[in-house]
Specification:
The chain has 180 residues and is α/β, with parallel strands linked by helices. Helix content is 44%, strand content 18%. It has one domain: RbsD-like fold (3-Layer(aba) Sandwich). Strand 3, helix 4 and strand 4 form a beta-alpha-beta unit.
Length: 180
């Protein structure tokens, strides 16, 4: 009986992962209205670790990273409430084409897909720590792709699209003046 239950559980888990694999775009579109500034979407390489914080959801895309990045950036470009702040691993800049054939093409493709948004670069471990901290309060969606080049995950911190940092700064300055 236990082996039947174990097999059913394994089948159910496989079906869930398979459904997520084929429906990553639908999942992003369903989550996006719930998400706001401080939520994250990560388009990860295949070796990205499964993080264990409850606020982190990992789905498998079972496709190439450029397809997923292009799709997520397209979905975000139509969102009226959020816009991405892009983070890339600092290590990516130092990878050598001789050691990793295709890394130069990858970097060029990512730059083209970021739609003019300049990436912030942090060490990979710093970004992982940032996600760990953020996930204590806010939700993070990780979409694992079949990418097999190191340090190629793209991290998108969602920010408010209709209230820019410069407007927030002016508001805080007015508030500070009013308190004097």
């Amino acid at each position: 009986m236990q082996s039947v239950l174990a097999a059913l559980l394994l089948f159910s888990t496989a079906m869930t992962l398979s459904a997520a694999s084929s429906n990553w775009q639908q999942i992003v579109q369903e989550r996006l209205p719930e998400y706001g500034h401080r939520n994250w979407i990560v388009i990860a390489d295949s070796a990205y670790p499964a993080q264990s914080k409850p606020g982190i959801e990992t789905i498998l895309a079972n496709t190439d990273q450029m397809t997923v990045l292009r799709g997520v950036m397209n979905i975000l470009s139509h969102a009226k409430h959020v816009t991405p702040i892009v983070y890339l691993d600092q290590e990516l800049q130092f990878l050598d084409e001789k050691e990793l054939p295709g890394i130069d093409v990858y970097r060029n493709q990512v730059d083209a897909l970021l739609m003019g948004k300049p990436p912030q670069r942090l060490l990979h471990e710093q970004i992982i720590a940032k996600l760990d901290e953020v996930s204590q309060t806010f939700r993070v969606l990780i979409i694992k792709t079949n990418m097999t080049l190191p340090y190629t995950s793209v991290f998108l911190q969602l920010d408010c699209a209709y209230w820019r940092p410069d407007a927030e700064k002016r508001l805080r300055e007015r508030m500070a003046k009013a308190q004097k």
